[in-house]
UniProtKB/TrEMBL annotation:
The gene is LOC106464282. This is Paired box protein Pax-1-like. Keywords: Developmental protein, DNA-binding, Nucleus, Paired box, Transcription, Transcription regulation. InterPro entries: Homeodomain-like_sf, PAIRED_DNA-bd_dom, Paired_dom, PAX_fam, WH-like_DNA-bd_sf. Residues 10-136 form the Paired domain. It comes from the Eukaryota. The lineage of its organism: Eukaryota, Metazoa, Ecdysozoa, Arthropoda, Chelicerata. Pfam families: PAX. The keyword Transcription applies. It is found in: Nucleus. Gene3D superfamilies: Winged helix-like DNA-binding domain superfamily/Winged helix DNA-binding domain (1.10.10.10).
DNA sequence: GGCGTGACGGTTGAG
DNA sequence: CACTCAACCGTCACG
């Protein structure tokens, strides 16, 4: 596993356009930035695809996401859905049940909302509450009171996992549509963090979700200040990318991200919770 | 030729 | 701590 990761992340794979990519991993933020940047300069997606040597499907996907959410960042990879039946919620349900053995599951649900234990985004479904009553509080009492709910729709309550569900991974402000870059946004300097190894700006969301369009604009503004690596790799000005530098640049970014991932400069913002954990190195892999 | 989209093989991380 | 599984990824091929 580790061996395979190291091999893949070191060498990557080459797509039909000659670009280097790592299967299963997001493109580097700098590439994503370039895609959005070039699109806003009026470069056609097909040309962006050729210039950056990224598949047009990927360009299409990134631009579509940007227009929809205002973010260029990849989504949160991995992990499990948040649990709504936290110990606190279970304890509260148990308390309600003990105080009023005849209470219905839907009444408990209403109480959870009314009492501020849950909000509309993380309140358990009626069937979930029934399951809690059945499994965690005692089936005997539950059945004797005739409140057993035979239908278990536990597979159907995914709607409760909202984008603003308040847990560390998906919490945060709702997505905002993309807006044209403004000069004021371009000149913003707060709310960002510069990676000193690469001079690539990093947004500083304290959540694992989308940054605001301001954050994206900020990112875009600083992508212009990206410094090319000292080797033969160059980073042309917007709209003037040539194919080969793009490939080198692409490949360089993978190597650089791989190297950065184990440095204190990269780990520091992560430890301070200002970089999306999705972009953090893990114990299994150091890739972003 | 350009673009949207689904299948595919892959990675990730909470549980 | 190995495993599961559902989230995500980019590429590719098709229409």
């Amino acid at each position: 596993m580790v061996k395979k990761n190291q091999k893949t992340q070191t060498y990557g794979e080459v797509n039909q356009l000659g670009g280097v990519f790592v299967n299963g991993r997001p493109l580097p933020n700098a590439i994503r930035l370039r895609i959005v940047e070039l699109a806003q300069l009026g470069v056609r997606p097909c040309d962006i695809s050729r210039q950056l040597r990224v598949s047009h499907g990927c360009v299409s996907k990134i631009l579509a996401r940007y227009h929809e959410t205002g973010s260029i960042l990849p989504g949160a990879i991995g992990g499990s859905k948040p649990r709504v039946t936290t110990p606190k919620v279970v304890a509260y349900i148990k308390d309600l049940k003990q105080k009023d053995p005849g209470i219905f599951a839907w009444e408990i649900r209403d109480r959870l909302l009314a009492d501020g234990i849950c909000d509309k985004y993380n309140v358990p479904s009626v069937s979930s509450i029934s399951r809690i009553l059945r499994n965690k509080i005692g089936s005997a009492v539950h059945h004797l009171n005739g409140h057993y709910h035979p239908y278990d729709s536990s597979k159907d309550h995914r709607h409760i996992y909202s984008a603003i569900y308040p847990y560390p991974c998906a919490a945060g402000p709702p997505p905002q549509p993309a807006a044209p870059l403004s000069q004021s946004a371009m000149s913003m300097t707060s709310g960002k963090l510069i990676n000193h190894n690469s001079n690539i700006p990093t947004v500083t969301p304290s959540f694992r979700g989308w940054p605001t369009s301001h954050a994206v604009s900020d990112l875009l503004s600083h992508s212009m200040t990206f410094r090319p690596p000292p080797q033969s790799v160059s980073m042309p000005l917007s709209g003037q990318l040539s194919a080969d530098p793009a490939q080198n640049y692409n490949y360089y970014m993978y190597l650089q991200n791989h190297q950065n991932s184990v440095t204190a400069n990269t780990l520091s913002p992560i430890m301070h919770g200002v970089v999306t954990p999705n972009l953090c190195p893990t114990s299994h892999s150091a890739a972003i």
